[in-house]
Amino acid sequence: MDFLDTELVAQIKSLKMEYSQKPQSELLIQIPNREKNVPRTVTHQTSEFTSLCPLNMSQPDHATICIIFEPRDFLVELKSLKFYLVSFRQVPIFHEEVPAKILKDLLPILGDVVINITGYFTVRGGLQTEVDAANIPGTEESRDLWKELESEGKYCPQDVS
């Protein structure tokens, strides 16, 4: 396994998560896409997502989160993604905000990629909720999103056109 960066391996092995009232985007680790010349779609999905209802914090919200993207130069390391998603467990957040928050935290890791994040939330009060957030490079919405991220000190690892 000489192709693995020993510092990256050490960083992954030392990951630790502590529950807090905010998602821990600092857990996300960027790894190089060694097959960037091969067009493909990556899908990450978990049915174990949990956050808290901000109106009644004794009630957890459960969801399946599906992240689909077309990688370019970078990927997100899976253990770090799992820890990041688990870090929502004590976070009071509305269903409608979750995919947008995940999108904003993943873009600085992945770069300006085609990405869609969907939250399929379990029924609450008889309502099934499904929320999508997306980035399509080159669109005005994408440029506006990157301006917002840059104002928060988060930058794209490649040129945004």
Please provide a written account of the structure:
It contains 4 helices and 6 strands. The protein has 161 residues and is of the alpha+beta class. The chain has one domain: GTP cyclohydrolase I, C-terminal domain/NADPH-dependent 7-cyano-7-deazaguanine reductase, N-terminal domain (GTP Cyclohydrolase I, domain 2). The protein has a 4-stranded antiparallel sheet. The mean pLDDT is 89.
Helix-strand layout with pairing:
Layout: H1 6-13, E1 30-32, E2 42-52, E3 60-69, E4 74-76, H2 78-86, H3 98-110, E5 115-124, E6 127-135, H4 140-151
Antiparallel strand pairs: 1-4, 2-3, 3-5, 5-6
Helical fraction: 25-40%
Domain count: the total is 1
SSE arrangement, N to C: HEEEEHHEEH
Separate helix tally? 4
The 3D shape can be described as globular
The major pleated sheet works out as: 4 strands, antiparallel
Total strand segments: 6
Task: Provide the gyration radius in Å.
Answer: 16 Å
CATH superfamily: GTP cyclohydrolase I, C-terminal domain/NADPH-dependent 7-cyano-7-deazaguanine reductase, N-terminal domain
Distance between the termini: 36 Å
Uncertain segments of ≥5 residues (pLDDT<50)?
none
How would you concisely characterize the structure shown here?
The protein has helices at residues 6-13, 78-86, 98-110, 140-151, and strands at residues 30-32, 42-52, 60-69, 74-76, 115-124, 127-135.
For the structure shown, list the relevant keywords:
161 residues, two-stranded antiparallel sheet, globular, 4 helices, GTP Cyclohydrolase I, domain 2, alpha+beta, 29% strand, four-stranded antiparallel sheet
